[in-house]
Amino acid sequence: MSLAETPVESLSAEAAAAELERLARELAEHDQRYFQDDAPLISDGDYDALKHRNLAIEARFPELVRPDSPSRRVGAAVSEAFAAVPHGVPMLSLDNAFSAGDVEDFVRRVKRFLALDATPIRLTAEPKIDGLSASLTYVSGRLVRAATRGDGRVGEDVTANILTIADIPKTLLGDDIPDRIEIRGEVYIAHADFAAMNSAAEAAGERTYANPRNAAAGSLRQIDARVTASRPLRFFAYAWGETSAPLGATQTEALERLASFGFSTNPLSKTVTDVEGLLGAYQDLEARRSDLDYDIDGVVYKIDRLDWQERLGAVGRTPRWAIAHKFPAEQARTRLLGIDIQVGRTGALTPVAKLQPVTVGGVVVRNATLHNADEIARKDICVGDMVIVQRAGDVIPQIVGAVASERPASAEPYAFPTICPCELQTAVTQEMTGAGVLTVVRRCTGELACPYQKIEHLKHFVSRRAFDIEGLGEKQLAGFFQDDWISEPADIFRLAIKDAQSLKKLKDREGAGETSVKNLFAAIESRRTISLARFIFGLGIRHVGETTAQTLARGYGSAHAFLTAMDQVAAGDPTAIEDLDALDQIGTAVVEACKAFFGESHTRDLVQRLFDELTVLEAEAPRADTAVAGKTVVFTGALERLTRDEAKAQAERLGAKVASSVSKKTDIVVAGPGAGSKLKTAAELGVRILSEDEWIALIG
Ligand SMILES: [Zn+2]
Q1: What's the confidence (pLDDT) of residue 510?
Q2: Whether residue 74 has pLDDT greater than 70
Q3: Which of 64, 92, 382, 413 has its CA at a distance of 20 to 30 angstroms from the CA of residue 121?
């Protein structure tokens, strides 16, 4: 069983930490793909499962909750392409109901909260439009600002884009309009418009969208509002945020007011008085779902009386007075024709099912995600199988499983490739977390030599903390990469020669002036001499961050010594491996990563070509003449005069080694307020314990 499948209750603390790290990374990646690139890779159901697993692990190991925990984030980080707009009243996210029982519970909770056991309560049932939420602020009846939902607290300013949507009034109608009001609703694209838009894009060789929701999100979040204007966006209003005057006494009245202002409101919304009414509305909408010209993924129930909504309030980011009753996923059966492997920009291999085209929930499906090798094995899927395909109101369809009784006699279990489909034909390895635990991800070991991964490696190479080349940012780099001027780090240092030999000079190619080309060459030249730590960090070896690169630089002293040792590590030399492992904070994951990186001949050659272009400075030998030289120090608790990073950097400058856990090898523990188990361990082991002031006095 892989770590990702280990039940939460059987995880050790170490494995839990590794899982939390993986989940934080994976969820951040999915968030990025979903919210910023509008191109999700997994279904909402799978995404939720990852989130739940993260929460369950955090509940069991509260001390392991990470600062970048996905549970601390709701929705998307705001893209830097748009100005940030804080929402006056947060845009909440609804709780979900999946069964009639969940709906009964919801109504019971509301009644209990309001102490209304016998009194009937009116509720609204509104179709849940599968689009993109937006917030529109009107002052004196005029639309002044529009924002996306973002993370619920801060959205993105998309005013120029929203102004292009025909059924959003620029000026509110009527004469009794609140001075200031924020209207909320859903931006969406109708099915017919979506189909026309995608076929036009396909004909023009442009990118197509997976579904109407992604198309709506992608269209609204265009940098150029003229592009948005060309897209068939529509809007349903269903809620409001801040308002200077109430819209009515009930949700129903408020919706009528929104319509009177000139908004489209959904004609299928209705008011009911009990659970049966809610479930009836749900069944009715579910039956009509496939005939609607827009996607809905459930029904939203709200308490009709607004004073009751106010009394019910919210728990965290979730209102108590509303719930979303989700439709079950739509499924269909079809034949699995083959499995393609896609290589991502970080070298991850993703299997994609090629299907006999089949209609699922009104959409023709040809591909479905199979996630990873373990998933294929777990679902026991063979090429040629009859499989069940599911679309959960969203994103890329997935395969639920195979129909065992319809397996062709010739079907064989799928063998996940052990060689990357990239031209290098390099080996595929199972990815390991920083804690040295295997994950479900399979990766090409070609790293910066693999054509799929090169660009990410190059971006890392020129980034601020690595080679930091002025005038060679991501954008310029992408251009050079596209035109084959730069395909590996060494090429950067040959750019001037290439330019001298080229018929098409850089300044013509870039449309840049003579001076800026000269400046670029000067900036590159100035980085030809580089510190060992930056050289190592710039290579982008897995699990080798800035700190680890510094450790390696200090440990080996020179690039020559480092590369020689790495060649020995790659060759499996036990002494070299032991030496590497013995460096402070270097564990199995780094050792394995170095082995794979330097053991890959294409990568090793490429590093050599880079090295031949450079003068790599020797690492500064740690100081031996200070009170803490050679000592191992652990900082714990809060520091008041220094930040943790400062304290660490200072200690290292003075020749000390900074460790994160207390052991017999620890010489000094610097304990601030709030120090816990580490302080206790130090006392038990008889390790010298200093306050922050005592520490500062010691180092002078
Ligand atoms: Zn590859």
Answers
A1: 65
A2: no
A3: 92
Supply the CATH number for residue 694's domain.
3.40.50.10190
Question: Distance, CA 369 to ligand 1 centroid (Å)?
Answer: 20
Domain that holds residue 669: 632-699
Helix, strand, coil shares of the chain, percent, nearest 5, are: 40, 25, 35
Q: Note whether residue 460 is domain-resident.
A: no
Interval between CA 446 and ligand 1 midpoint (Å) = 5
In the structure, ligand 1 is a single-atom ion and the residues with CB under 5 Å from it are: 420, 422, 444, 446, 450
CA of 535 to the centre of ligand 1 (A): 23
Q: What is the pLDDT of residues 288-329, one digit of tens each?
A: 887 888 989 899 999 999 999 999 998 878 899 999 998 887
How far away, in angstroms, is 341 Cα from ligand 1 center? 11
Percentage of the chain modeled with pLDDT above 70: 95
CA–centroid distance, residue 423 to ligand 1 (Å): 7
- CA distances 156 to 32, 80, 145, Å, are 15, 9, 10
- CA separation for the pair 250, 467 (Å, rounded): 61
Taking residues 640-649, report their average pLDDT.
79
Sign of CA dihedral 497, 498, 501, 503: negative
21 Cα: distance to centroid of ligand 1 (angstroms):
25
Q: pLDDT per residue over 664-677, tens digit each? A: 888 999 988 888 88
| pTM for the whole structure | 0.53
Residue 45: inside a domain: yes
| Amino acid in position 441 | V
Q: What's 144's domain CATH number?
A: 3.30.470.30
Of 410, 444, 478, the one marking the end of a domain is: 444
Q: Which residues contact 192 (CB under 8 A, 6 or more apart)?
A: 293
Would 432 be classed as within a structural domain? Answer: yes
Residue 142 lies inside a defined structural domain of this protein: yes
CATH number at residue 588: 1.10.150.20
DSSP secondary structure string for all residues of 279-300: HHHHHHHHHHGGGSSS-EEEEE
H/E stretch holding 590 reads helix 588-599
